[in-house]
Amino acid sequence: RKRFSLNFGIEKVEKFGFTDDVNHKGLFIRSAVVVKPGVKIRIEIKHPDGLIAMLGKVCWSKKVPANVIHKMKGGMGVEIISFLSGEDLYHSICNELVAQRGE
């Protein structure tokens, strides 16, 4: 598991969160701010090797209070719809994670 900070939003990319579970088809965004399932969001991950920007659809969400976000898994499961930039970088991160887990 690797954790990257990210920003997301519907109109503007203004909310803050962290990646949690990351795979080729989607990711979990850990955040106290959640969006309803079915809503499309824009996500930007500022990686040291470049910007990864994508559009995703929220598949499920779980709201938890901000003061317990580090103890309870709150946030959103997001399916990737399309990449705006950094697609190769994102997939290389996923491949790296799979290799580390020995899958």
Task: Describe the protein's architecture and organization.
This protein is mostly beta strands. 15% of the residues lie in helices and 49% in strands. The protein is built from one helix and six strands. It has a six-stranded antiparallel beta barrel with strand order 1-2-3-6-5-4. Strand 4 (40-47) and strand 5 form a beta hairpin. The protein is globular.
Give the helices and strands as they follow along the chain: EEEEEEH
N/C terminus separation:
13 Å
> How many individual β-strands?
6
Percent helix: 10-25%
Going across the biggest sheet, name each strand in turn.
1-2-3-6-5-4
> What characterizes the major β-sheet?
6 strands, antiparallel, barrel
Structural class: mainly beta
How confident is the prediction overall: mean pLDDT?
91
What is the overall silhouette? globular
Per DSSP, the total helix count is 1
Any idea what the radius of gyration is?
13 Å
Percent of sequence in beta strands: over 45%
